[in-house]
Every structure is written in C-alpha cells, then in structure tokens.
Write a structure and sequence with these properties.
Length: 175
C-alpha cells in the first residue's frame, strides 16, 4: 500500500521521466565533423557546421565554420556560399552574421542570387586572423524535403585579388 508521501511523489517522478525522454530530441543539433562515407569531398575539405533544428520545412539557424587555417595571409573580404539547385530552402539575407571567436565582424552587404544558388557576403573589413570564422545564417526556411546538401565555400581576399579561392564544403543533413 502506498503512503501519502509516496503518492505525492509519483506524479513528479512521472513528469521527470517524460522530460528526460524528450530532452534529447529538443536539444538535437546536427554538426560535422563526423564520419562521412563516399561523399566525394576530401576529408580535409569538409567544414564543420551546426544546425539548430535540422528538420525539414522548419525555420532554422545555420552556423557554418571556416577554419582559420584555411584563410591565407591575404585574409577574407568576401565569403561566397554556393548551394545545389535541388536545395529549395530560403535564406533571410538581412539576418546574416559573421564572427571571429566572440567578435562580430560588420557585414557590408549580402546578395542572395536565387538563379545562381549563391550567397555573397561582403565584409565591411577584411578578416586577417588565424581564428575560426563563423558564418551564422538566421531565419533559414529549410526545404520541404530532407537530404544531404553540399554547400561550398569560396573566399575573396579583396577587390585587388578578385579571384575566389575554394575553402571547403559543408555537407548539411536535413531530416
């Protein structure tokens, strides 16, 4: 037979058990590096990322990391992100942020070219650090269909050096 104290404790334990079971799905975030077989992208060119949800047909935040070791001594004045034509998500070009560590780097402009499947992020100042660069795409509308999406990154050092250099590829997984 249950005593009164135990009877009062049972609903609390039941609620705690439910919260423990739900917590992993509520805090789920995709990230790389992981172990990717047959991607076609050399492991040294696979870039790290994190998605807040990673679920199809939902609003998301993409945190795309460019290792400082991939930026040469000329730095980075523009970041170009190219995505595949079968990616049907939508970007908010007014909600793009760039960070080196905790320091926000001013963004001069963002051009989203839907036909060419590119995002061009012009920075107000050239980044000349060896620290990791984090590109944060806020308010992204994930595509209706899940899948693997290869986002490639190129960097331009300045207008004097207008040729973009390949930095790497983010292999995003949307469930």
């Amino acid at each position: 037979m249950l005593n009164i104290q135990t009877a009062k404790l049972l609903p609390i334990l039941a609620l705690a058990g439910c919260l423990v079971a739900v917590a992993p799905t509520a805090t789920r975030a995709d990230s790389l590096p992981g172990f990717t077989l047959f991607s076609g992208v050399d492991p040294s060119n696979q870039l790290s990322y994190r998605l807040d949800s990673g679920n199809r047909n939902s609003t998301d935040r993409y945190r795309l990391t460019i290792p400082g070791s991939k930026i040469n001594r000329l730095g980075a004045a523009q970041i170009q992100i190219t995505y595949p034509d079968y990616y049907k998500g939508k970007f908010d070009d007014k909600a793009v942020e760039v960070f080196v560590g905790d320091k926000a780097i001013p963004v001069q402009s963002v051009q989203w070219n839907r036909e060419a499947q590119t995002l061009e992020i012009d920075l107000a100042q050239r980044i000349k650090t060896k620290g990791d660069i984090n590109v944060v795409l806020n308010n992204v509308q994930n595509p209706d269909g899940g899948g693997m999406y290869y986002f490639t990154c190129q960097v331009k050092s300045s207008a004097e050096f207008p040729v973009a250099r390949y930095v790497g590829t983010w292999i995003l997984s949307i469930d």
